[in-house]
Specification:
The chain has about 350 residues and is of the alpha+beta class. Helices cover about 45% and strands about 15% of the residues. The chain is built from eight helices and ten strands. The strands form three sheets. The protein has a six-stranded mixed β-sheet, sandwiched between helices. α1 packs across α6 and α2 packs across α6.
């Protein structure tokens, strides 16, 4: 059955075509507009992230990413889990992760891509971590059944395998000591003693890869020395590259770049990716509009404040100048009146006016 692609955005529409019928399941890469013809997808988009890391065929790529982010971690295999976890109460909504998986040792990994900063972001991540922790002891569906039936079940053991919550961020977090970040890019947390750092439990770990902390531009892959720097470089600049930089060698990066090639997407994958990109552009435009309006309002408010301040300063300066001018005029007026009084008194004594003028 043919797949129909409806080009709904003129910026991405091939000339003279409002729709394209594809017999091949892959996109007509040669027919795409120049702007849409990026060789590699933007890995910060959820749809592209899923293609590169979230499919069963991507298992080795995901393992490579996890081992690079978690020091000393060795993983033999990964099982992808359902990203939708039902709430523990009937009225609760489902929690949906970008990627949720389990190693052969039953360790759980939540991987999330976060483009925009959020209020109370760390608390939100902490809340997410409670689902795979509790699910190890009691499945949400099972708990709902027990609640509805009135039955009970006693948990025999509270043994928990480690849960890793990994967030790849397109913004910076605030840190008391930024020098403590690994390679200046990754912050990690666990539950430890406030006094000596003793690990209380190995059951919970948080890692935040903060992409904007990488300062290298798209043509500066040669400056990346560590694995973390190279991974951050790929996430930040993949969609701007025409070829895989020679500095990004090795099996992991070969797999990433191969999976990220737009030409390798199916039509369905490409539609999802393009739709997400357009939505992202719209969001950026909306945020830019809000910023411009706020700047405009602030500028107008500042102008009004400045005008008021100017009026106050003007009145202040006016009073100052008025006093100065008043003193000057007063002195001149006083001198004039004194001169006239002298002339009047001398004239009364019979001195001719000509002599008086010569005297004064």
């Amino acid at each position: 059955m043919a797949t129909v692609i409806h080009w709904t955005h003129p910026h991405h529409t091939p000339d003279g075509a409002s729709s394209q019928v594809l017999e091949d399941p892959h996109i007509p890469y040669g027919n795409l507009s120049k702007d849409a013809r990026k060789r590699f997808a933007n890995l910060m988009m959820d749809s592209a992230f899923k293609i590169v890391f979230g499919l069963p065929a991507s298992e080795k790529t995901l393992i490579g990413l996890l081992e690079a982010l978690i020091p000393g971690k060795k993983i033999r295999s990964i099982k992808y889990l359902d990203k939708e976890i039902p709430g523990f109460f009937l009225e609760d909504q489902k929690t949906v992760f970008d990627l949720y998986c389990e190693s052969e040792d039953r360790e759980r990994f939540i991987i999330e891509m976060q483009l925009n900063p959020q209020k109370n972001f760390r608390e939100r991540v902490l809340f997410y971590s409670t689902f795979p922790l509790r699910e190890q002891l009691l499945k949400p569906v099972e708990e709902q059944y027990l609640r509805n039936s009135g039955a009970s079940r006693k948990i025999q053991s509270y043994h928990l395998v480690p849960v890793y919550v990994i967030s790849i961020l397109n913004f910076k977090l605030k840190h008391q000591k930024e020098a403590s970040l690994r390679d200046g890019l990754l912050s990690s947390y666990s539950i430890r003693s406030d006094q000596d750092g003793e690990l209380m439990t190995d059951a919970l770990h948080f890692l935040f890869l903060e992409l904007p902390r990488l300062k290298y531009k798209k043509d500066e892959a040669f400056r990346c020395k560590t694995m973390l720097e190279k991974i951050a470089f790929v996430f930040r600049h993949s969609s701007f590259l025409e070829d895989r930089p020679v500095e990004l060698s090795g099996e992991l990066f070969e797999r990433i770049f191969h999976a990220a090639e737009v030409a390798n997407m199916t039509a369905e994958e490409f539609l999802a990716y393009q739709s997400e990109m357009l939505a992202s552009f719209d969001q950026m435009a909306q945020r830019e509009y809000v910023r411009e309006e706020a700047f405009k309002d602030g500028r107008e408010e500042g102008w009004e404040v400045g005008l008021d301040e100017g009026r106050k300063e003007g009145r202040k300066e006016g009073r100052k100048e008025g006093r100065k001018e008043g003193r000057k005029e007063g002195l001149e007026e006083g001198r004039k009146e004194a001169r006239e009084e002298i002339i009047r008194k001398l004239a009364q004594q019979g001195i001719p006016v000509e002599q008086i003028q010569d005297l004064l």
